């Protein structure tokens, strides 16, 4: 049977220019920080941007944005609050910072429901912060969002890159568009990740160093946008 919510989702997303999922086979590589900073730099450039936190394992964009107190408005659907110029939606609005031990079907349902009820305006970009891994959330997203593009984040570690490699190959097999691979918290590794990204036939977007000033900037948009990390994100992902 066809899920009736699929056609609602098509309508809801119909007016959005590009939908980019920031994802990784691995956790802790900087997906949330990259997704949030990327979204904020696009706002700075004058684009209409949405940020959608779909990480049911540990939502964190609300902390990075310093948006712990906002709530969406219900009006024949859910209208995302505007935070620092971003239309912002997160699972956290419905989990209230409690742990959500969601299991397979529940995760899918929550994800489909959120896509079906959220009313975005005519966005140029919708940036999605994904849970780690190559799981159901990724497959659901591919099924639900026809023109989804993936931006893959890795660190320089082989432990991260091995899972990212599997993810990249799977996306290629599924004929899903991948913007490229971003190497975050880059170590001095002589372009090892860059070379391997090339071997996968994917675009290497660039490397970002560990920036010790980031931690203090979490929750403070202006301070975050002033970090070397944010400047590098804007430089690398400027024209995605
Ligand atoms: N380039 C960087 N410089 C400094 N800290 C970083 C950098 N990238 C990520 N971090 C930090 O690393 C931790 C993990 O990042 P996070 O975005 O939560 O990862 P993920 O969403 O992939 O689990 C966070 O504390 C974040 O602030
Ligand atoms: Mg995260």
Q: What does the model show?
A:
It is a single chain. The chain is an alpha/beta fold. The protein has one domain (5-237): Rossmann fold, CATH 3.40.50.300. It is built from 11 helices and 10 strands. The chain has helices at residues 5-13, 31-44, 61-65, 92-95, 104-117, 136-144, 158-173, 192-199, 214-217, 221-225, 228-237; strands spanning 18-23, 49-53, 73-74, 78-79, 82-83, 86-90, 125-129, 148-154, 177-184, 204-208. Helix 2 packs across helix 11 and helix 5 runs parallel beside helix 6. The longest helix is centred in the last third of the chain and has 16 residues, at 158-173. Magnesium ion (MG) binds at residues 31-32, 55, 60, 129.
What labels describe this entry?
globular; single chain; binds magnesium ion; alpha/beta; 8-stranded mixed beta sheet; binds adenosine-5'-diphosphate; Rossmann fold; two-stranded antiparallel ribbon; 240 residues
Topology summary:
Blueprint: H1 5-13, E1 18-23, H2 31-44, E2 49-53, H3 61-65, E3 73-74, E4 78-79, E5 82-83, E6 86-90, H4 92-95, H5 104-117, E7 125-129, H6 136-144, E8 148-154, H7 158-173, E9 177-184, H8 192-199, E10 204-208, H9 214-217, H10 221-225, H11 228-237
Parallel strand pairs: 1-7, 1-8, 2-6, 2-7, 8-9, 9-10
Antiparallel strand pairs: 3-4, 5-6
Helix pairs in contact: 1-5, 2-11, 5-6
Bound molecules: adenosine-5'-diphosphate and magnesium ion.
